Amino acid sequence: MYQDLKKLFWWRRMKRDIAAFIAQCETCNRIKAEKQRPAGLLKPLEIPILPFAEFSYNNSYQASIEMSPFQALYGRQCRTPLMWEESGEREFFGPAMFEEAAENVAKVRENLRVAQSRQKSYADKRRRELTFEAGEFVYLKVSPLRGTKRFHTRGKLAPRYVGPYRIKKKIGELAYELKLPEHLSGVHPVFHVSQLHKCLRLPEDQISPEAIDLQDNLEYLEHPVQILDRAEKGTRRTRIPVCKVLWSNHSEREATWEKESELREKYPHLFENE
User: Which molecular function term from Gene Ontology is one that the record holds (predicted)?
Assistant: First the structure.
């Protein structure tokens, strides 16, 4: 945009003003793809302790059943160091065995921590940190779907974001809860930060966007509105009838050529007047 305008106009701080205008443009925010690194640093999972707690519970004596859950299920006690005295094997093991086992567990946990730290450093090199505050407005990333396959392009100007929506609160380090409208009541309102795009302009100052019929999985289906033209494509022996289709939420400049057979099968109402 700057390269085109500078051929006809000039004013002080022109490039900065154009960049600020584009950053606040609603159409650009909803349609343009981000070229930055994905948002949200890697959050490693906690080193699990549940298996140890489960093992301890299953082998502990329960007063209500007068035995351990393991014995109730299998009919015998679990073979652990606690049972070695009964089996006569205690003399082969001493305190050193328990100290060695504790050291091995601590070593395994430390190795897991080091591996997590190393993997996090690798992942964070290709990601960026992004945070929001409660009350801010953000755009929500969606996935467009087409009812038919195209011959050439895939619709670069299809909306990639909807909104903006207000942030209600932050959940954890990387998730946010949004205040969604009524028609999105079936969508879970908590999203990862990588699915959000910051809105630099208040919604009150924007023109209301045309409605997009979103599904519960944050996908929307584009429908053909009108057939603008017809032609035939193919090789010397095979000819394929095609139609130039005007899609919903798009202008005539974005119309695409589709196979007539697929259109007749999925959208027969387009050919009712023939």
Answer: nucleic acid binding
Q: Is 16 helix (H, G, I), strand (E, B) or coil?
A: helix
Domain end residue (candidates: 101, 124, 147): 124
Query: CA-CA distance, 90 to 3, in Å (whole number)?
Result: 84
Count of Cβ atoms closer than 10 Å to residue 123 Cβ: 15
CA–CA–CA angle 204, 205, 211 (5° rounding)? 70
CATH code at 263? 2.40.50
> Per DSSP, which regions of 126-216 are E strands?
137-141, 143-146, 161-171, 175-179, 190-192, 196-198
Give me 28's structure tokens.
């650009």
| Strand 239-247, strand 224-234: pairing | antiparallel
Three-state SS at 229 = strand
Q: Locate 67 and state its tokens.
A: 């035995």
- Parent domain of 262: 223-271
Q: Which has more pLDDT, 236 or 62?
A: 62
Cβ neighbours of residue 224 under 8 Å, at least 6 residues apart?
147, 148, 245, 246, 247, 248, 258, 263, 267, 270
Note whether 163 and 192 are same-domain residues.
yes
C-alpha–C-alpha distance, residues 201 and 205, integer Å: 7
Residue 257 β-bridge partners: 244
Total domains, the chain? 3
Q: First vs last Cα of the chain: how many Å apart?
A: 44
Mean pLDDT calculated for residue range 143-150: 46
Its pTM stands at: 0.48
Pair of tokens at residue 267: 């959208």
Q: pLDDT tens digit string along 149-180?
A: 333 334 555 677 777 888 888 888 888 888 88
How far is the CA of 162 from the CAs of 99, 142, 194, 196, 205, in angstroms? 58, 7, 14, 10, 16
Residue 228: Cβ within 10 Å count: 12
